[in-house]
Records
---
Amino acid sequence: MSNLFQKPLFTYVVMLFFIVLGTGVLLIPFTDNYLALAIVLTIEYIIFLNMISYFSRILIKPVEKAIDTMEEIQKGNYGVRLQNGPTMVGTLNTKINGLASHLNQLATKKNLRLEQLNTLVNNTESSLILIDERGFIQLINTKFINMFGGKAENYLSQLYYDVLENEACIKAVQKAFVSENSIKESFTHYIGIKKLYYEISGIPIFNDQNNLKGAVLVIRDITDLKKLESMRKDFVANVSHELRTPITSMKGFAETLLDGGMSNEETTREFLRIIYNESHRMQLLIEDLLTLSRLENENFRLVLNTINVKDITQDIIPTFMYHAEAKKLTLHVDIEENVVFKADKERVKQIFINLIDNAINYTPENGHIYLKVEKQEEYVHINVSDTGIGIDKEKIPRIFERFYRVDKARSRNTGGTGLGLAIIKHIVEVHEGEIEIESEVNKGTSMHVYLPL
Ligand SMILES: Nc1ncnc2c1ncn2[C@@H]1O[C@H](COP(=O)(O)OP(=O)(O)O)[C@@H](O)[C@H]1O
Ligand SMILES: [Mg+2]
């Protein structure tokens, strides 16, 4: 049947002509009226021609069209449609149209899924590749390409061990395949001179029958996590060290007193004074640690109130005047009237205290300290400057780190905890303000804090 439809129409016309001619030759012995025979045969030929044309129109042509349409569908063009009709071919067309429309729906769904998958894969924070059970890379995301270089086509449909250069990646896939279990490892990778830490996971994939179908390799940048971890370790080490110093000292003096040192009243007084000072230092340190911990707590909320700068300064300036005088320093105060802004009063007070405290501590006798507060566009500008020892340019970026002191012994002697500026930085940040510093060794330091109005 299919052969029949594949013959061109012209072949049928010629074949029919010869059939009619053959019939004529067979009928010649039975008639002498050749004219009538010719007329009958011609009419018969015309009738047959009409029949061919009719069948061609209603059967062959539509079937040919249906075949063309099926070929288009095979190529993936699911948008093609055929005209419906009353005949059997019409029914066939309806079925073909239904098939095309179904395939179209499936293709749309598949494309949508693929698009969703691509979006997901390319927007994850991790680098990712998918490897089939034969070891060929089937999917790769942009992050992976950015990390190791090259283009997607350098990796896709290639054997993973041929194209992956990183040993850790190859080993992770191999282990996932061999053990058929998820594995996790870490490695370091350099981008230029930057050392980055990564965690690599090899996850085997199974189908419904529990057969291994491939593996996914996920690489996560854990550099920040590592940094945080090392910061935490440093912090614990620093706190322990800071606490050990006064405790060792207190224990030593108490021991000496217990071992007979109390016989001399003057020594006893001196030792008790040292023990008192050390315990006071410990108290200050613990208070600063608690303040920092409160500021860093996720649940920390600022208590915002409309405050006048004078409300803060009038509480603290008398005490600082006294401290400054005791150190033969002059404290100059210049505070603009009616500077009103929204802030957490106790926290902002802490900024003033820590800044003036530093200015007093790091300024030798006969020096000057200036406290200036003024309104500036949309900020309150707090400026504490001194004529003190100043800070080396190279050290300036580090002074906001916890426990960092330019001169450890000096800071300790003045009762510093090494946390004052770290606390200020936090308070300024939570107020969405800014802090700037100008300093010159042996000339002095000027600290500027800007808090939004
Ligand atoms: N006004 C200043 N003049 C000179 N150095 C300062 C001044 N303020 C801060 N520093 C330096 O910054 C370090 C950190 O300050 P801070 O966090 O307040 O800790 P500390 O408890 O040591 O005062 C100080 O140890 C000191 O070296
Ligand atoms: Mg300080």
---
Amino acid sequence: MEEAIRLREEILRLQESLLEHRRQLFALQQSCLHEFQETPLARTCVKCLLTESLYY
Ligand SMILES: [Zn+2]
């Protein structure tokens, strides 16, 4: 039981951390001067890892 509570708290903590990191990555990608590296299917920025599909 205590183990379950501990695990649930850890999951909540990680989910909040995940959201925060996603926000930070999004902000970073918004302000990046992209340098794209292309593959046949997508292009990825080597600086911020933003990926855009080349399928339209
Ligand atoms: Zn970028």
